[in-house]
C-alpha cells in the first residue's frame, strides 16, 4: 500500500485536524495571534475525547495478541567486557549471534555514554516538544527528506497516522581532517535559531557517542559472523557512516487500543540504538505471533538489526517487525539513532562461499528514496524495495517505477 500524499492533500489534512479539534469543543482558549492559536489546536488534537479518524489503524495491525507479561528475552551485552579481553568478546559474540539469528534485538551496557549526556538529550527532547507549534514548525520536514519536525507525519500520509511527534536530523561521520564536526549543532541553530545552539551541541555530542557505540557493536557483530579480522568488514563499511537521529514524543492517548505510536515496521537502516525515557514501556516486537514488550535495563540501550544490515549478512541476521504502543495516561519519549551507510556505498555482503544472494546490491540513497518517495516503511520494506530495484522482466509498469540503472552500478 502506498500512502504518500501530495502537499495539497497534506495541508487539507492539517486543516481537517484543526477542524476536528475545533469541532470537538475542547479548544479552551482562542487566542488572537495565528501562531499561538495553531499551538493550542495541536495540543487540543492530542486531548480529543476520541481520536480523529486518520489516526485509527486497521484492526489487523492493532488486534494481534499483545502479551504484556511475556517480555521478550533481550540479552544485555557488556561492550566494555567485549573490548577488555577475549572471554568478554566470546560472551558478547555468543549473545548477539543467538539474538540476531532469531529476532535481532539485544541491549548494550558498558557502552561508555555518560548518564548526564543521555539525560541532557532526553530532557532536550522534552523541552523541544513542549514548544508552541509555530516554533517547532521552523524545523518542518521538507518533502522527500527524512529530517525535520513532523506531527503525526500528517504532511506525508493521510491514513494510519501515528500518535506521535518527531524531530529528526542527520549526523555525518567527521572525516579525517575533522570536518563536519558540527553538522548537528549547525542544523539546530540554522533551523530553530541561535537560542537552540546549546541543544544542538548536546545532540552533536550524543550522536558522536552513538557513533562510537555502533563501532564497538559492529566489531562484535563482525566477530560473530566470522569477518572480524583486520578491523572487520562491517566496522570498515560504516567508517564513513551517515546516520539519522530521531527524537520521538508519544502524547497520552484517549483510545490507545485503536491507534499506534509507531506502526508495525522493520527499520530500513542498518542498526538502531534506542534510548527510552524512564520506565514507560511501549516498544513491542512481533515474535511467535504475539507482540512482546521489550523492557530495557536501566542505563542500557536497546539495539536492533535493520533491513540494511540484514541485507549485509545475506539474511543471516534478522530485521524484525516492531512497533510502539501508546498509553491513556502516560506520555512517552524515546531517542532513536539509526546507523546508516554513506549514501553511495554499495550494500553487499562480504564474499561468501557460493551462497545464493537473497537481495540485490543497492545503495542507502536508493533505499532512502524508496521509503521517502515511493513506499511507506512497513512489514515488507526490504522485499518491496528489492522488487522495485529489480522488477520482474515481464512487468512493464514496475519497470517504470524503478530507479535509474546508474545508481545500481555505483561502486564503493
Ligand atoms: C529511512 C527512514 C524511514 C523512517 C525514518 C528513517 C529510519 C526509520 C523509518 C521509520 C521510523 C520506520 C517506521 C515508519 C516511519 C514512517 C515512522 O513511523 O516514523 C519511518 C521513517 C520515515 O519514513 O519517516
Ligand atoms: O519509540 C520506540 O520505542 C520505537 C520507535 C521505532 O521503532 C522507530 O522510530 O523506528
Ligand atoms: Fe523502528
UniProtKB/TrEMBL annotation:
GO molecular function per UniProt: metal ion binding; oxidoreductase activity
Keyword Cytoplasm: no
Position of the signal peptide: none
Domain Fe2OG dioxygenase as annotated: residue spans: 240-341
InterPro entries, sorted: DIOX_N (IPR026992), IPNS-like_FE2OG_OXY (IPR044861), IPNS-like_sf (IPR027443), Iron_ascorbate_oxido_reductase (IPR050231), Oxoglu/Fe-dep_dioxygenase_dom (IPR005123)
Cofactor section: L-ascorbate
SUPFAM superfamilies cross-referenced by the UniProt entry: Clavaminate synthase-like
Superkingdom of the source species: Eukaryota
Record keywords, A-Z: Iron, Metal-binding, Oxidoreductase
Pfam families recorded: 2OG-FeII_Oxy, DIOX_N
Annotated catalysed reactions: gibberellin A53 + 2 2-oxoglutarate + 3 O2 + H(+) = gibberellin A20 + 2 succinate + 3 CO2 + 2 H2O; gibberellin A12 + 2 2-oxoglutarate + 3 O2 + H(+) = gibberellin A9 + 2 succinate + 3 CO2 + 2 H2O
PANTHER family xref list: 2-OXOGLUTARATE (2OG) AND FE(II)-DEPENDENT OXYGENASE SUPERFAMILY PROTEIN-RELATED (PTHR47990)
Family under the similarity heading: Belongs to the iron/ascorbate-dependent oxidoreductase family.
Protein's UniProt name: Fe2OG dioxygenase domain-containing protein
Lineage: Eukaryota, Viridiplantae, Streptophyta, Embryophyta, Tracheophyta
Amino acid at each position: 500500500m502506498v500512502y504518500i500524499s501530495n502537499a495539497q492533500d497534506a495541508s487539507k489534512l492539517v486543516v481537517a485536524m484543526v477542524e476536528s479539534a475545533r469541532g470537538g469543543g475542547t479548544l479552551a482558549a482562542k487566542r488572537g495571534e495565528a501562531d499561538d492559536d495553531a499551538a493550542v489546536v495541536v495540543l487540543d488534537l492530542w486531548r480529543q475525547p476520541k481520536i480523529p479518524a486518520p489516526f485509527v489503524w486497521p484492526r489487523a495491525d492493532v488486534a494481534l495478541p499483545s502479551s504484556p507479561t511475556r517480555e521478550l528475552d533481550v540479552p544485555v551485552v557488556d561492550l566494555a567486557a567485549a573490548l577488555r579481553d577475549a572471554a568478554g568478546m566470546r560472551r558478547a559474540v555468543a549473545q548477539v549471534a543467538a539474538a540476531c539469528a532469531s529476532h535481532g534485538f539485544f541491549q548494550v551496557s558498558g557502552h561508555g555514554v555518560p548518564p548526564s549526556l543521555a539525560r541532557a538529550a532526553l530532557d532536550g527532547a522534552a523541552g523541544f516538544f513542549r514548544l508552541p507549534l509555530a516554533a517547532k514548525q521552523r524545523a518542518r520536514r521538507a518533502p522527500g527528506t527524512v529530517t525535520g519536525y513532523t506531527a503525526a507525519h500528517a504532511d506525508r500520509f493521510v491514513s494510519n497516522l501515528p500518535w506521535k511527534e518527531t524531530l529528526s536530523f542527520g549526523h555525518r561521520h567527521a572525516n579525517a581532517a575533522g570536518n563536519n564536526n558540527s553538522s548537528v549543532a549547525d542544523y539546530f541553530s540554522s533551523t530553530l535559531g541561535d537560542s537552540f545552539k546549546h541543544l544542538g551541541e548536546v545532540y552533536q555530542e550524543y550522536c558522536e557517542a552513538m557513533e562510537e557505540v555502533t563501532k564497538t557493536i559492529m566489531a562484535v557483530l563482525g566477530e560473530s559472523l566470522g569477518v572480524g579480522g583486520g578491523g572487520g568488514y562491517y566496522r570498515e563499511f560504516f567508517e564513513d557512516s551517515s546516520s539519522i537521529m530521531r527524537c520521538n514524543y508519544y502524547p497520552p492517548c484517549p483510545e490507545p487500543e485503536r491507534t499506534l505510536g509507531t506502526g508495525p515496521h522493520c527499520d530500513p537502516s542498518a542498526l538502531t540504538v534506542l534510548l527510552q525515557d524512564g520506565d514507560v514501556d511501549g516498544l513491542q516486537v512481533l515474535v511467535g505471533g504475539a507482540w512482546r514488550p521489550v523492557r530495557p535495563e536501566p542505563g542500557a540501550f536497546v539495539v536492533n538489526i535493520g533491513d540494511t544490515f540484514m541485507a549485509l549478512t545475506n539474511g543471516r541476521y534478522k530485521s524484525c517487525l516492531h512497533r510502539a504502543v501508546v498509553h491513556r495516561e502516560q506520555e512517552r519519549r524515546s531517542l532513536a539513532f539509526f546507523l546508516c551507510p554513506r549514501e553511495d556505498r554499495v550494500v553487499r555482503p562480504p564474499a561468501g562461499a557460493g551462497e545464493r544472494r537473497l537481495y540485490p546490491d543497492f545503495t542507502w540513497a536508493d533505499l532512502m528514496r524508496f521509503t521517502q518517495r515511493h513506499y511507506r516503511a512497513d512489514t515488507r520494506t526490504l522485499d518491496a524495495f528489492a522488487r522495485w530495484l529489480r522488477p520482474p522482466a515481464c512487468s512493464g509498469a514496475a519497470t517504470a517505477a524503478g530507479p535509474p540503472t546508474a545508481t545500481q552500478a555505483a561502486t564503493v
